[in-house]
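RETRY 2/3 - previous attempt timed out on the joint model. Re-submitting the same 352-residue input unchanged.
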Amino acid sequence: MEVTLGLMSGFLLGFFLQRGRILRFETQIGFLRLIDRTMLKFMLSALVTGMVGWYCCYELGLVALNVQETVLGAQMVGAVLFGIGWGLGGFCPVMAAGALGEGRVHALWALLGMLAGAALYAEAYPELKDTLLAWGNMGALTVPQLLGIGHWPLIGCVVLVAALFVAWMEVRRQ
Amino acid sequence: MASKKGWNPYLAGILTGLVVVGSAVVSAQLLGKSQCPDASGAFVWIAALLERLTVPEHAARQEYFQQGGALWQVMFVVGIFGGALLAAFREGGFKRESVPPMWSGRFGENAWLRGLVAFGGGFLAMFGALLAGGCLIGCGLGDVMQLSLEGLVALVLFLIAGVLTARFLYGGRDYPWR
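RETRY 2/3 succeeded.
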């Protein structure tokens, strides 16, 4: 069941990402080079939809929050490594799989590299457990909790800022 | 072959948000746990499988393989491949490409070089994602949607590091934002 759900959500996502042209190397690197806004628009709308959707479902008791722990040491180092890899390869795991589906065979190299990265991470895990993965553990904190506000005020602000930003972007195009 | 213009990225984003939330709700209702799609575990699962087949004693001693990696994530990644494949074929966007134009404009047409850098990039991205707690979709979208601090820290640093890397590789802007 879990497997079917994974397959189906992946299938839908792959389809939407392909049609939205998100999977392309040009879209990803163009975004990081600040010359292409497709990814920005995509992420803004996905985040806003997701925030509102998730918390609405949460209020209705349909879903629980699955907040991971904030471990600053691991996160900061990991996120920077990810960013460098993203800039070099042009793909994150999801995009690489999708790009391969579009025939971009160089994505296969990225996927193989990801496999190697996962294997090496497992090798390094015992070391990491005692070092990076233990530094700066703030617990499973959400941003509203950190700021001491409710989640809806925060979501409201995010939606407002996103709407203004989108309006500004679209108006500038005229 | 020119393919038709793609969907509006805002639309793709909204649909993506709905899929992520939808799959969390369905998994919560049917499985009792809200699962956010994340691709990084898929690679751990496959790496674990390969190691169990080739160096089983070593694999058995790997602590991380006990907890990281899940089959449903592998199916998630397979699904993405399938969905993109179908979508590309149906609208003509499928194109066999060894070196993307944006890359070749700067670094040349050598497919091996492109492959090597893609390999290295994938390696760093995955290692980093596993450290940070997820990839761009799982963490950058899925966790940030839940307003987790972990997601926000990850996303901000993904972007800063990515932008700086691209700047380093490709130089300053060529043309204004489109």
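The radius of gyration of chain A is 19 Å. Closing ticket.
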